[in-house]
Amino acid sequence: MGFERRQTKQIHVGKVAVGGGAPISVQSMTTTKTSDVEGTLQQIYALAAAGCDIVRCTCNELEAAEGLAQIVPRSPVPIIADIHHQYKMALAALEAGVHGLRLNPGNIRKPEHIKAVAMEARDRNVPIRIGVNGGSLDPALYEKHGGLTAEAMVESALQEIAYFKEVDFDLIKISVKASNVPLMVEAYRQLSAVTNYPLHLGVTEAGPLPNGLIKATAGISTLLLEGIGDTIRYSLTADPVEEARAGRQLLESLGLRERKNVDLIACPSCGRAEIDVIEVANRAMRAFEDKKIPLQIAVMGCVVNGPGEAREADLGIAAGNKRGHLFVKGRNVAVVPESEMVEALVDWATYIHEHGVEAAIARVDTTIAEREAAKDRNALLEEKGDDANHSTEKIVEIRKTISGN
Ligand code: SF4
Known about the structure:
The mean pLDDT is about 95. Helix 1 (about 35-50) packs across helix 2 (about 60-75) and helix 3 runs parallel beside helix 4. The radius of gyration is 26 Å and the shape is elongated. The protein has helices at about 35-50, 60-75, 85-95, 110-125, 140-145, 150-165, 180-195, 210-225, 240-255, 275-290, 305-310, 340-355, 355-360, 365-385, 390-405, and strands at about 10-15, 15-20, 25-30, 55-60, 80-85, 100-105, 130-135, 170-175, 200, 230-235, 265, 295-300, 315-320, 325-330, 330-335. By secondary structure, it is α/β, with parallel strands linked by helices. It is about 45% helix and about 15% strand. The chain has two domains: about 10-255, TIM Barrel; about 265-385, Sulfite Reductase Hemoprotein, domain 1 (2-Layer Sandwich). The chain has 15 helices and 15 strands. Helix 2 links the parallel strand 4 (about 55-60) and strand 5. The structure holds iron/sulfur cluster. Iron/sulfur cluster binds near residues 267, 268 and 302.
């Protein structure tokens, strides 16, 4: 199952294709001073490891442009320079060898400056993102449209495109970000109806976790599901690695990018849980964080229902009587002490990743694990009954309350 994506023109940011059916790319931005070359490169490497395809760095001063000259050749991913106010910084960043520019039409407004940058980018074959931002819209457009509207943001982008066209530059991608989700969604919808340049999606200043994550996901995924968007960025008030992870995770869950990391699922826990599911799931999440094992792994609170409920997972563990019952595609394969559940998951996941599910099941005698699981399941059923959440008792009480007895 897939979504029909709108056809856009393809551009290249360094080695990464954007638009024209290319995989949707994940972007993020460094928070270091760009003049701090080592610190910035460290962050770029961490972002790349978290699944980021393109990284943006601010180029706000001469030292930043000089830093870019050293960062670009050592970066594992293409680098885009973020430019505000000073068009000369864009020229300096191009000189430094960046793979792309982001210009804010709200604060670089002189046509001769815009065209000077576009001509230089054209000669160097470097794309530019027209990065319209609701918070820094051109005041003239703000006034013309009676405030911040989707139409005003789209007009800002179209004005910039017109300047670029005058100098024959069309390596363009566009964003119309706002912190208000419905406004941002509307602006992108309108934009995609009037242009076929690739679009960079984002909810600007989405904020800290978890609210920022929810806002950004709401805006970005709404558009992606409509086929709009070629590259995305989560703007979170958090470590940028979280942005990269979120972007990657969103694309993987929508089936728009191939899974690279573990898809960890866990039961919500209930009266039957034999372990602190939240704690074990979080520990497992951390253990798999950098492992790049593209399997679905389940952490389940009890062996009574866990293996059945998560039978579609590649691998899972369910708790029972101080033991962890490991199962592969719903088949019990091993029993481990409760304290070793996460380590056992990592071992098995690594084995499955390298040798496949069949080989993993074949290396053990599943009858032993199945017998032990049945033992714990029966013991728990005996102890807690088949209604561990006391639902039947509650229903009796509810009926009494309603009937007034
Ligand atoms: S029945 Fe077991 S697996 Fe299902 S939610 Fe409760 S603890 Fe988790």
